[in-house]
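Priority: medium. Attachment 1 of 2:
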Protein backbone atom coordinates (compact mmCIF):
# COMPACT_ATOMS: atom_id res chain seq x y z
CA UNK A 1 0.00 0.00 0.00
CA UNK A 2 1.48 3.35 -1.00
CA UNK A 3 2.03 6.21 1.37
CA UNK A 4 3.40 9.71 1.24
CA UNK A 5 6.90 9.65 2.70
CA UNK A 6 8.61 12.86 3.77
CA UNK A 7 12.37 13.22 4.16
CA UNK A 8 13.27 16.87 3.62
CA UNK A 9 11.44 19.57 5.49
CA UNK A 10 13.43 22.59 4.37
CA UNK A 11 13.12 21.90 0.66
CA UNK A 12 9.43 22.71 0.95
CA UNK A 13 10.13 26.32 1.81
CA UNK A 14 8.19 28.52 4.22
CA UNK A 15 6.37 30.92 1.95
CA UNK A 16 2.97 29.22 1.90
CA UNK A 17 0.39 30.98 4.06
CA UNK A 18 -2.60 28.94 5.15
CA UNK A 19 -5.00 31.27 3.32
CA UNK A 20 -3.22 30.48 0.05
CA UNK A 21 -3.21 26.70 0.42
CA UNK A 22 -6.05 24.84 -1.22
CA UNK A 23 -6.66 21.17 -0.42
CA UNK A 24 -4.41 19.81 -3.14
CA UNK A 25 -1.58 22.16 -2.24
CA UNK A 26 -1.83 21.21 1.42
CA UNK A 27 -1.46 17.53 0.59
CA UNK A 28 1.34 18.21 -1.89
CA UNK A 29 3.19 20.12 0.82
CA UNK A 30 3.67 16.81 2.60
CA UNK A 31 5.23 15.03 -0.38
CA UNK A 32 8.95 14.41 -0.13
CA UNK A 33 11.40 16.04 -2.54
CA UNK A 34 14.71 14.62 -3.66
CA UNK A 35 17.79 16.76 -4.33
CA UNK A 36 16.56 17.66 -7.81
CA UNK A 37 13.25 18.85 -6.37
CA UNK A 38 11.28 16.06 -8.00
CA UNK A 39 8.39 14.91 -5.82
CA UNK A 40 8.36 11.24 -4.93
CA UNK A 41 5.64 9.03 -3.57
CA UNK A 42 7.02 5.75 -2.25
CA UNK A 43 5.59 2.53 -0.93
CA UNK A 44 5.83 1.90 2.80
CA UNK A 45 7.26 -1.56 2.27
CA UNK A 46 10.09 -0.13 0.16
CA UNK A 47 10.88 2.77 2.47
CA UNK A 48 11.05 1.27 5.97
CA UNK A 49 14.78 1.94 6.12
CA UNK A 50 14.11 5.62 5.50
CA UNK A 51 12.29 5.92 8.81
CA UNK A 52 14.63 3.84 10.95
CA UNK A 53 16.16 7.04 12.29
CA UNK A 54 12.68 8.32 13.14
CA UNK A 55 11.89 5.15 15.05
CA UNK A 56 15.19 5.47 16.90
CA UNK A 57 13.86 8.77 18.26
CA UNK A 58 10.89 6.94 19.75
CA UNK A 59 11.18 3.18 20.37
CA UNK A 60 7.61 2.74 21.58
CA UNK A 61 5.25 0.12 20.29
CA UNK A 62 1.75 1.09 19.28
CA UNK A 63 -1.08 -0.44 21.25
CA UNK A 64 -2.83 -3.17 19.34
CA UNK A 65 -5.52 -2.02 16.95
CA UNK A 66 -8.26 -3.42 19.20
CA UNK A 67 -6.98 -1.62 22.29
CA UNK A 68 -6.41 1.60 20.36
CA UNK A 69 -10.03 1.48 19.21
CA UNK A 70 -11.23 0.80 22.75
CA UNK A 71 -9.22 3.75 24.06
CA UNK A 72 -10.57 6.03 21.34
CA UNK A 73 -14.12 5.00 22.21
CA UNK A 74 -13.54 5.62 25.91
CA UNK A 75 -12.13 9.09 25.19
CA UNK A 76 -14.78 10.02 22.61
CA UNK A 77 -16.71 12.46 24.80
CA UNK A 78 -13.53 14.17 25.96
CA UNK A 79 -12.33 14.39 22.37
CA UNK A 80 -15.62 15.92 21.22
CA UNK A 81 -15.41 18.55 23.94
CA UNK A 82 -11.83 19.37 23.04
CA UNK A 83 -12.45 19.57 19.30
CA UNK A 84 -15.37 21.94 19.82
CA UNK A 85 -13.07 24.17 21.86
CA UNK A 86 -10.54 24.00 19.01
CA UNK A 87 -13.16 25.32 16.53
CA UNK A 88 -12.64 22.32 14.29
CA UNK A 89 -15.68 23.29 12.24
CA UNK A 90 -13.80 26.40 11.06
CA UNK A 91 -10.59 24.57 10.13
CA UNK A 92 -9.41 24.24 6.56
CA UNK A 93 -6.28 22.20 7.27
CA UNK A 94 -5.79 19.76 10.17
CA UNK A 95 -2.77 17.74 11.26
CA UNK A 96 -3.38 14.57 13.30
CA UNK A 97 -0.02 14.22 15.06
CA UNK A 98 0.76 10.64 16.05
CA UNK A 99 -2.26 9.31 14.20
CA UNK A 100 -1.42 5.65 14.80
CA UNK A 101 -3.92 3.33 13.11
CA UNK A 102 -5.82 6.31 11.67
CA UNK A 103 -9.12 6.12 13.53
CA UNK A 104 -8.93 9.67 14.84
CA UNK A 105 -7.86 10.98 11.43
CA UNK A 106 -11.07 9.62 9.92
CA UNK A 107 -13.05 11.21 12.76
CA UNK A 108 -11.36 14.58 12.23
CA UNK A 109 -12.20 14.49 8.51
CA UNK A 110 -15.80 13.54 9.18
CA UNK A 111 -16.26 16.20 11.86
CA UNK A 112 -15.03 18.97 9.57
CA UNK A 113 -14.77 20.07 5.97
CA UNK A 114 -11.00 20.30 6.30
CA UNK A 115 -8.15 18.57 4.56
CA UNK A 116 -6.57 16.21 7.09
CA UNK A 117 -3.06 14.74 7.20
CA UNK A 118 -2.37 11.94 9.67
CA UNK A 119 1.30 11.78 10.65
CA UNK A 120 3.07 8.90 12.36
CA UNK A 121 6.50 7.31 12.30
CA UNK A 122 5.23 3.71 12.39
CA UNK A 123 5.13 2.25 8.84
CA UNK A 124 2.73 -0.56 9.74
CA UNK A 125 0.20 1.84 11.24
CA UNK A 126 0.42 4.27 8.33
CA UNK A 127 -0.06 1.46 5.81
CA UNK A 128 -3.09 0.18 7.67
CA UNK A 129 -4.56 3.68 8.10
CA UNK A 130 -4.26 4.42 4.41
CA UNK A 131 -5.89 1.11 3.51
CA UNK A 132 -8.88 2.02 5.68
CA UNK A 133 -9.56 5.47 4.21
CA UNK A 134 -13.28 5.67 3.34
CA UNK A 135 -13.95 6.38 -0.31
CA UNK A 136 -15.85 9.56 0.49
CA UNK A 137 -12.74 10.97 2.24
CA UNK A 138 -10.20 10.06 -0.44
CA UNK A 139 -9.86 13.67 -1.56
CA UNK A 140 -9.45 15.14 1.92
CA UNK A 141 -7.57 12.56 4.02
CA UNK A 142 -3.99 11.43 3.50
CA UNK A 143 -1.19 10.03 5.63
CA UNK A 144 2.45 10.92 6.08
CA UNK A 145 5.25 8.71 7.40
CA UNK A 146 7.50 11.12 9.26
CA UNK A 147 8.91 12.14 12.62
CA UNK A 148 7.02 14.59 14.82
CA UNK A 149 10.40 16.12 15.65
CA UNK A 150 10.58 17.45 12.08
CA UNK A 151 7.07 18.00 10.74
CA UNK A 152 7.23 18.14 6.93
CA UNK A 153 4.82 21.03 6.44
CA UNK A 154 5.43 24.71 5.71
CA UNK A 155 5.20 27.44 8.31
CA UNK A 156 1.72 28.78 9.11
CA UNK A 157 -0.02 26.06 7.09
CA UNK A 158 -2.29 24.34 9.64
CA UNK A 159 -5.39 25.55 11.47
CA UNK A 160 -5.61 22.71 14.02
CA UNK A 161 -3.06 20.22 15.30
CA UNK A 162 -4.66 17.33 17.18
CA UNK A 163 -2.85 14.74 19.26
CA UNK A 164 -4.15 12.03 21.57
CA UNK A 165 -1.93 9.98 23.88
CA UNK A 166 1.04 10.58 21.57
CA UNK A 167 3.13 13.17 23.38
CA UNK A 168 3.47 10.58 26.15
CA UNK A 169 5.84 8.74 23.81
CA UNK A 170 7.71 11.70 22.34
CA UNK A 171 11.40 11.88 23.12
CA UNK A 172 11.64 15.69 23.01
CA UNK A 173 8.20 17.19 23.68
CA UNK A 174 9.55 20.74 23.74
CA UNK A 175 10.97 20.37 20.24
CA UNK A 176 7.75 18.84 18.92
CA UNK A 177 5.63 21.62 20.41
CA UNK A 178 7.97 24.10 18.80
CA UNK A 179 7.35 22.38 15.46
CA UNK A 180 3.61 22.53 16.05
CA UNK A 181 3.87 26.24 16.83
CA UNK A 182 5.77 26.71 13.57
CA UNK A 183 3.23 24.96 11.32
CA UNK A 184 0.20 26.51 13.02
CA UNK A 185 -1.28 29.55 11.33
CA UNK A 186 -1.77 32.70 13.36
CA UNK A 187 -4.67 32.00 15.70
CA UNK A 188 -4.38 28.26 15.02
CA UNK A 189 -5.01 25.81 17.83
CA UNK A 190 -3.38 22.67 19.13
CA UNK A 191 -5.70 20.23 20.89
CA UNK A 192 -4.05 17.66 23.18
CA UNK A 193 -5.30 14.75 25.27
CA UNK A 194 -2.59 13.21 27.44
CA UNK A 195 -2.62 11.01 30.56
CA UNK A 196 -0.83 11.56 33.86
CA UNK A 197 0.07 8.22 35.39
CA UNK A 198 1.50 9.91 38.46
CA UNK A 199 -2.06 10.75 39.48
CA UNK A 200 -3.48 7.26 38.95
CA UNK A 201 -6.01 6.47 41.69
CA UNK A 202 -6.76 2.85 42.56
CA UNK A 203 -8.65 0.92 45.24
CA UNK A 204 -8.43 -1.56 46.88
CA UNK A 205 -4.64 -1.64 47.39
CA UNK A 206 -4.42 -5.18 46.00
CA UNK A 207 -5.09 -3.89 42.46
CA UNK A 208 -2.68 -0.94 42.58
CA UNK A 209 -0.59 -0.86 39.39
CA UNK A 210 0.59 2.76 39.43
CA UNK A 211 4.24 1.97 40.19
CA UNK A 212 4.30 -0.77 37.58
CA UNK A 213 2.83 1.58 34.94
CA UNK A 214 5.36 4.30 35.81
CA UNK A 215 8.30 1.91 35.67
CA UNK A 216 7.28 0.08 32.50
CA UNK A 217 6.46 3.26 30.57
CA UNK A 218 9.68 4.99 31.59
CA UNK A 219 11.70 1.94 30.53
CA UNK A 220 10.12 2.18 27.08
CA UNK A 221 11.12 5.83 26.71
CA UNK A 222 7.73 7.32 27.62
CA UNK A 223 7.13 10.13 30.09
CA UNK A 224 4.29 8.97 32.37
CA UNK A 225 4.02 12.50 33.84
CA UNK A 226 3.72 14.33 30.53
CA UNK A 227 0.18 15.54 31.21
CA UNK A 228 1.09 17.83 34.09
CA UNK A 229 3.98 19.33 32.12
CA UNK A 230 2.05 20.39 29.03
CA UNK A 231 1.14 23.87 30.23
CA UNK A 232 4.74 24.88 30.91
CA UNK A 233 5.95 23.25 27.69
CA UNK A 234 3.32 25.08 25.62
CA UNK A 235 4.10 28.40 27.27
CA UNK A 236 7.79 27.91 26.47
CA UNK A 237 6.82 27.25 22.83
CA UNK A 238 4.96 30.56 22.65
CA UNK A 239 1.46 29.10 22.87
CA UNK A 240 -1.25 30.35 25.22
CA UNK A 241 -3.12 27.57 26.97
CA UNK A 242 -6.42 26.59 28.47
CA UNK A 243 -6.56 23.26 30.28
CA UNK A 244 -9.20 20.90 31.65
CA UNK A 245 -9.07 17.62 33.49
CA UNK A 246 -11.24 14.75 32.34
CA UNK A 247 -14.17 14.96 34.74
CA UNK A 248 -15.93 11.74 33.83
CA UNK A 249 -15.54 8.60 35.90
CA UNK A 250 -16.45 5.16 34.59
CA UNK A 251 -15.92 1.87 36.33
CA UNK A 252 -12.87 0.11 34.87
CA UNK A 253 -13.40 -2.28 32.01
CA UNK A 254 -12.00 -5.80 32.10
CA UNK A 255 -9.24 -4.94 29.60
CA UNK A 256 -7.89 -1.81 31.27
CA UNK A 257 -4.62 -3.59 32.14
CA UNK A 258 -4.14 -5.18 28.72
CA UNK A 259 -2.13 -2.32 27.26
CA UNK A 260 0.28 -2.65 30.18
CA UNK A 261 0.48 -6.34 29.29
CA UNK A 262 1.43 -5.42 25.72
CA UNK A 263 4.55 -3.60 26.91
CA UNK A 264 7.78 -5.65 27.03
CA UNK A 265 7.94 -6.40 30.75
CA UNK A 266 10.69 -8.08 32.75
CA UNK A 267 9.80 -11.41 34.35
CA UNK A 268 9.32 -9.82 37.77
CA UNK A 269 7.08 -7.13 36.25
CA UNK A 270 5.06 -9.77 34.41
CA UNK A 271 4.59 -11.68 37.66
CA UNK A 272 3.37 -8.51 39.39
CA UNK A 273 0.94 -7.79 36.56
CA UNK A 274 -0.42 -11.34 36.76
CA UNK A 275 -0.98 -10.90 40.49
CA UNK A 276 -2.83 -7.60 39.94
CA UNK A 277 -4.95 -9.08 37.18
CA UNK A 278 -5.90 -12.00 39.41
CA UNK A 279 -6.92 -9.58 42.14
CA UNK A 280 -9.13 -7.60 39.74
CA UNK A 281 -10.79 -10.75 38.44
CA UNK A 282 -11.86 -11.64 41.98
CA UNK A 283 -13.94 -8.45 42.15
CA UNK A 284 -16.73 -6.94 40.15
CA UNK A 285 -16.15 -3.70 38.27
CA UNK A 286 -18.27 -1.86 40.84
CA UNK A 287 -15.88 -2.99 43.59
CA UNK A 288 -12.90 -1.42 41.86
CA UNK A 289 -11.85 2.21 41.71
CA UNK A 290 -9.41 3.03 38.92
CA UNK A 291 -9.10 6.57 37.62
CA UNK A 292 -6.33 7.81 35.34
CA UNK A 293 -6.29 11.62 35.05
CA UNK A 294 -6.28 12.96 31.49
CA UNK A 295 -5.26 16.50 30.63
CA UNK A 296 -7.26 18.22 27.88
CA UNK A 297 -5.29 21.21 26.62
CA UNK A 298 -6.04 23.85 23.99
CA UNK A 299 -2.94 25.83 23.00
CA UNK A 300 -3.33 28.84 20.72
CA UNK A 301 -0.76 30.50 18.51
CA UNK A 302 -1.15 34.21 19.11
CA UNK A 303 -1.96 36.56 16.25
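Attachment 2 of 2:
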Amino acid sequence: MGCIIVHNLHSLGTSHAVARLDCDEFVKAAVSHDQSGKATIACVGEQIRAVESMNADNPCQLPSLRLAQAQATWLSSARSRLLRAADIHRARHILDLGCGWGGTSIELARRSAATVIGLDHQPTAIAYAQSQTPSELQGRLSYCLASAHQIPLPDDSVDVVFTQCSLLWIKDVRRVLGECQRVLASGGRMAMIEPDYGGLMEHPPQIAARDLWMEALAERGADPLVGRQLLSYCTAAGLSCQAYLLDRYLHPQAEYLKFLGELPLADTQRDELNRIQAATQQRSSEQLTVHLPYWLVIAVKQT
